[in-house]
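yo, Ankyrin repeat and SOCS box containing 9 is done. seq:
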Amino acid sequence: MDDKPLGSNGSKPPRPGDAPDVRLLSNPLMGDIVSDWSPVHEAAIHGRLLSLRNLISQGWPVNLITADRVSPLHEACLGGHASCANILLKHGAQVNGVTTDWHTPLFNACVSGSQDCVNLLLQHGASPQPASDLASPIHEAAKRGHMECIETLAAHGGDIDHNISHLGTPLYLACENLQVACARKLLESGPPTLMQLCRLRIRKCFGIRQHHRITGLSLPEELKRFLLHV
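structure:
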């Protein structure tokens, strides 16, 4: 007869090696994001690959989500940990999972600027198009100046000219956030004459004294040189 004490709910307490009770870890009715945070999320966000491997081998599910529908893969990509993202994907992590804020793992990879994570996700079938205009990967990459991420997204079908009503285009966001190198690259990636047309249009707005007026603008020197074509 097994005389081990029972838990508060009448069940036997867990023993080392027992599969985790997922019901205790992911409750959609719980409003506190920390309350359903799991060791798998913790290992993923901090890039603890060995711990993550051990947890998975012990039976922890890779698609465990928080109340905000954040998965371990979301966290691995937010931390820029491609090795952790890779092991999660190999064990069946949902590559296009969406949080309550419409963030996908690919969006989070563009937040961190991890080119390795972006490549890995796209190779596993991640959609370069946003699940919602509230969280567009290519716009997020442009805002943060992650040009390599933009190039990879574009190579997989991402639209570098995608215009979102409340954000504008990736080019607009790059300029708004003074990501000059990113803005230049986006211009060069457009139609052959787009960069020249933009420069000429801006210079025309300044009239005949364009040189004096442009040099007096509160802009980065690189952007001034671009406008002056020097």
